[in-house]
Specification:
With 241 residues, this protein is an alpha+beta fold. It contains 7 helices and 12 strands. The strands form 5 sheets. Strands 1-10-9 form a 3-stranded mixed sheet. A hairpin with a 6-residue loop joins β11 and β12.
Length: 241
Amino acid sequence: MRQLLFDFEWFRDPTQTAFELVGAEPGRSLKLGAPAEGETLVQTRPEMTVLLPTRQLVVLRRVTMLQSYRPLDLYRNLFNQFSRVQTPEGICNFIKMFGPLTNDGRNPDVGDDIVALMAHSRQMRKLLEAYAADDKIAVAQTLGPKGLPLDNNSIGDVEARIVFEPADGAFQLQLTPKNLISALWLQLGQFLSGKERLKICFHCSELFEVGAGTTRRADSKFCSDEHRIIHNSRRRTSGAD
């Protein structure tokens, strides 16, 4: 069976104004009316305490139309960009550019949970850095003994089917993610199972691809010639060997 085929359509706002970061609010109790002096329970509700739920830090969608597009077709390594997001503001900016990450994020009354999404980002980054360093122990610890669990959570919401191309007689396994965070994990999984290689730039510590089909040689230590020159210049200035 040939390479996996992703069939994924998602939604974003081309104006990048449809989403906003909304701060967390702690849970609190609210006391509702007790009868005032001289009043009866019929006239005034009895005293009662209502617990208002905690609101998490979320990115909420304004009530506006979103435009459909195919992110995995347009952005080959979108998972890498997401893995570099380390702040709530960064998550919000990512959503402004590429759309909500979960189905809740498309609901103006719910929104994307920042804490949960940052956990996804950190785990992706940890996995990619371990892969780039060829640290098999760290990779195994990140994925767990049975691999990353995809069922019963947002990144396991995937439809699968076998498709056939009559033109060349080839079969493909077609996967249709149900949200963007699921699509990013699948894209990352396809990358890790391929022949591509990642390294960490000695200058900026960012991940970059090396080898055939890229702009960097397999033995490159820097993501660009500019960073190589800057790094070596600083070493000479500091007197490092």
